[in-house]
Amino acid sequence: MKDTLLAQAKTLPVDDQIELVEAIWNGLVDRHEVPPPTRQQQEELDRRLQRHLANPDDVMSLDDVTAAVKTSLQK
């Protein structure tokens, strides 16, 4: 990365920096260039998959999750 480009980005107001980061990220996503998960993220995904495989009936439907969230937001 060009140091001057980074230096210029750092001079932007925070809101503009966030907008720039979002635009760059969205461009990567649009091109399907999302980075692979980190080692820690992959370990967590593996842990969750193993837990699901060990207990496949221990799930909630989307409707149940939505209802629970709505109930919690009303409190």
Automatic annotation (TrEMBL):
* InterPro entries in the record: CHP02574_addiction_mod
Question: Record's Pfam families?
Answer: Unstab_antitox
Entry protein name: Addiction module component
Species assigned in the record:
Duganella levis
